[in-house]
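Field reference: sequence -> structure
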Amino acid sequence: MMVTLSSLSVGNNMNQSIGKQEVNKHEVPCVDIETEEESIWDDVYSIALDSFITVDEGLNSDMEYIAINSQTLSNASDEDIIKIKDYFIKYEVEIIDESFNILSEKGMVKKGNYIEGLLLEITDVNIISDNKVIIEGSKFRSGLGAVGVKSTVIKSNGEWQLKSADMTWIS
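Structure field:
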C-alpha cells in the first residue's frame, strides 16, 4: 500500500529557510511512505480452520485441546499464528501448535492412532481473487475419525467471512 502525505499543518505558521526552499516549520512536505499491506492470513486461516470444527461435530466430543499445525499455514507470519491461536480460545481448551509427529513424540497419540484433542491442518490454499480464498485441510481425531474440508472464505464489506465449508472425505 502506498501512502502519500501532502502538506499537513500542525501548528503556528513560523517559517524556516532550508537551503533554497522556504518550508513551514510545522508542515510535513510531500513524502512517499511505503508500508507493508496488512496480512489477511490471520483472518482467512482462523475462519477456515474454525469451519473445519463445525464439520462432523461428533469428532469434537470431549476434546481436551486443539492442535493447529502452523507449518501448514503458508504465508502466515509469527504474528498471524499468535492471532490464529488466540481466535480459538473461545473453545475453552488448550490451543497448541503441533504436528501429528510432534504429538506422537510427546506421547499424545494413543493406541489406535487416537488423540484426545483435534488436529487441524491445511493442505491447499487457492487464492481466487483479492476477495476470495479457497482453503482445503483436515480435522483429525483418530485414524477412523477424521474429515477433509474445503472452505471458501470471502471478503464482503471489508470483512472476511465464511461462504461455505464442505466435507471432501471422511475416514
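Note: Residues 41-170 form one domain.
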